[in-house]
Amino acid sequence: MEHANKSFQIIETQSAGHRREKAETPAATLTGPEVSSDEKMDLLPDDHRQFPSERDTVTRNQIINKLNFINFQDDTVLINFIHNLYPKTITLKAEPLPCRGDLVDCRWAENKNISQIIQSYKFNSLLIPNGQKLLKVKPEVLRMDAESISLLLPAMCNVIRSRRARRYACEGISVKLIQNSTVFSGSLLDFNGFSFRVKLKAVPPQTFEWLNPEQPVNIILADKVITFYSGECKVIRYTRGQNTRNYILEPLKKEIQRFRQKEYRSERYELTPSPNLVFQHPYTKMKVDLKVVDLSGSGFSVEEDESSSALLPGMILPELELSFTDGYRIKCSGQVVFRKASVEANGAKWVKCGVALLDMQIEDHLKLIALLHQTKNKNSYICNNVDLDALWDFFFETGFIYPDKYAAIQKNKNQIKETYAKIYTNNPHIARHFIYQDKGTIFGHMAMLRFYEDAWMIHHHAARKSTQNKAGLVVLDQIGRMINDSHHLYSLHMDYMMCYFRPENKFPERVFGGATKNINDPKGCSLDSFAYYLFDSPTSLTPDLTDGWQLADSQFEDLQELSDFYEHTSGGLMLEAIDLKPEKIDCGELSKEYSRLGLTRLRYLYSLKKNGHLKAIFLVNVSDVGLNLSNITNCVKVFVTDPEELCVDTLHNAISEIANKNGKKDFPVLIYPAAFADEQQIAYDKIYNLWICSLQFSDAYFKYLDRLLRFI
Questions:
Q1: Does residue 615 lie within any of the structural domains?
Q2: Which pTM was predicted?
Q3: Is the pLDDT reported for residue 259 higher than 80?
Q4: Which string of DSSP letters, residue by residue, matches 612-645?
């Protein structure tokens, strides 16, 4: 209500007979910048208008309160005049002064030759904007001059022109209207949840004849920095004018598809008490406070009263705040994706609007996801404050840390404990852990680590054997729902999920290996095998590489050759996921993030060549001990692109030289393809499969997993 009057401007209105003609012909002739309140209403679609009802009345005290509120807001009322000789009206803006009784004084808001107007026109009525309605007052004129007008208020007045939805005046929003390669520019005047009004300029050689009102137009609404809306609209009505025109436009889509449509959508929850959505509206700069109806990790729905609806499908909301009753607030950005009208049993009308999350701080999203998972299952925890002694006991008791693995990590146990304290106590946003815990006892655990720029590695899956709680499946479901809710958020950098597993381990083979076979598309889900063994750095100096062999930092061209080799032999996702595509040769943002968190994550790339011909590329990862308990995050990966002339001794000499350069001792080596290790009779300990899934194919993965888990 407080800004509604801004949508009215001083106008020159035509006769009543001409207004009836306009109802048949949408255009209305205007003079200069003037627009009348009558004409303003005529520009609205018929289903958005209602006509005067004599039964709706307001008392003098209510009129006085409304006038004082308008004065408090520094807003204006409207004064209607009728020509002394002709059936012609004009409307002027006036500023009401503080009112304590039945006398009200109003100052003219603009200098529009008032002296001449009051000689040619006589007072007709006072219009007071009141939300989507107008209060039509018929006072007695006590005094009127070029400065002000004094009115004696009647005991009652009528409520007229009730709109379906209130219109909001807009500030600082530019408009571009595009049709058939022609672009008209202008500004957004006002809007509601159903339509909006724009003022356009025709810049020669443009004319408004270039704009066909019978065809759809594309609209872009923006300020100086952000584009808030773009979409296809239809022209409802428009005014006439040679240089400028006002157009009422209605979006054609009531629902948009922000992201690729998914069969497996995020679960929505109705919280009690539910949070509120609070934000400054980008068009009006007014504060909006709406109740959240339901909430998920990827979006939420809010309810609006139909008469004050202010959300349009497709609208970008760059600064939102979810406010919870405990005072906790989550900031995010979103986009309105649908609006659906609802009618309650008592006839009250409201609108449900869906908002898709576009981005959110990773820490806030973690807390939101944790809250929702607890809502579904009280024993499901994400990144909770874990008793680390209980967690280590769980790892040993479940056999996750078996004797051979413990023998490999025992000498670094203090460093490993320090690493886990950083990850599980500080909850850095490069790591996630999922725990199923009942009555203080841990039954299941799974973790994720962002070890590559846009890929998260699943690891450390362990569970107590129990047919009652199936904790291992619960944490697998948790991690799946978290991925489904989160992967489209930029701040999480989650384009791929991946994990290493041994093919003889039945559970991951059924889940991840089975998914690869089921999806049957290496660009959606791929599996690559590495030969794994521990490399013991020699205590004595190793011989240099023989003549013709060179080990040097990898170049762009080397990664391009690796890419060609991998595409030919596998065609999968590995190089994209682990940052070995040529365009990522210098990527280092993630390493900086680890450093800011007090953790280590370094990578080095070396190329082994014979007489200038590439034979192998070495990816060296250096990280904190225990970041991954199989030390896959602290290893050397060897990618053999050309096995000809590359023997075991040369390979080991190259690895030894790399170890000396980077100060590495006793580290895992993973050779790809694993067949090279067999061909060269390299003694390796085990095979590790690297499974990678593009989250563009998440539906296919979750569909397979859903079917599989029914039988487990």
A1: yes
A2: 0.77
A3: no
A4: TEEEEEEEEEEE-TTSSTT-TTSSEEEEES--TT
